[in-house]
Fold this sequence. Notes:
Blueprint: E1 5-10, H1 16-25, E2 31-35, H2 47-62, E3 66-71, H3 74-85, E4 92-94, H4 96-106, E5 111-116, H5 118-123, H6 125-133, E6 138-143, H7 147-153, H8 159-174, E7 179-183, H9 191-198, E8 203-206, H10 207-222, E9 234-238, H11 243-253, E10 260-262, H12 266-269
Parallel strand pairs: 1-2, 1-3, 2-9, 3-4, 5-6, 5-7, 7-8, 9-10
D-glutamic acid (DGL) binds at residues 10-11, 14, 40-43, 73-75, 117, 120, 148, 184-186.
Amino acid sequence: MSWKGIGIFDSGVGGLTVLKEIIGAVPQEDTVYLGDTARVPYGTKSPATVIRYAEEIAAFLAKRDIKLLVVACNTASAVALEELKKHYSIPIVGVIEPGARRAAAMTRTGKVGVIGTEGTIKSSAYAKAIKRINPEVEVLTRACPLFVPLAEEGWVDNDVARMTAHTYLDGLREAGVDTLVLGCTHYPLLKGVIAEVMGPAVKLVDSAEETARTVAEILRIQGTLRPESEHGNHHYFVTDVPAGFIRVGNRFLGGRLGDVHQVSLEEYRATGTADEQA
Ligand code: DGL
């Protein structure tokens, strides 16, 4: 019997934190990952541009015979998820909803902090999702754009990282949040410093972990989960030369990166997704 794989995409290397959790949760599944390294970052771009990029990537991955699509990028999940869902019949899982669900369940004081890129924070996608679950929860947000280059540079536990985290997060801590959502693919790498600055009373919600749980759950419910005796294969596509992706990606994924190919999304550019039905 041939099993379909899981498609997953991000603006670049960051989504490997989500892939890592998915591989941990369902190691038997094949995955195909696309990192849009030629056009990263998405976090500073307009919703219209991010939607266009996401549509092209979804069309590319839909051609790879996938049974589920994960939008690992928080920015793309925030602005493009609903648009993508209109075009495909397979489940499409973003990272916002799973993180929001967890945060709403975890808070005791009813004050939740959310950090992410400018695009994610401006969209208010997390705040809306949390309030849909529990309108009583107060959501405080902060864009933390410098965390992205710090994570890619591997500067996750030094004075620069610490000082940056204080600048971004002191206000949220002082405002009394008891739960903080790491609403960006890169932030799990900075978990140590973020936890240190927020203090032991604040619980961190890792959207990548919650998304992996959701993926496993959907496949189980649908009956499309591969038997546990299987061993998944992992393929990677990037839109720029692979060297930088491999170098940084090995750190994000934990040294298991192989089989990386450069692709062009040119042929998906004009058509978008209108005719695609994966
Ligand atoms: N992957 C993006 C996100 O999770 C961060 C990097 C970018 O700005 O593209 O929002």
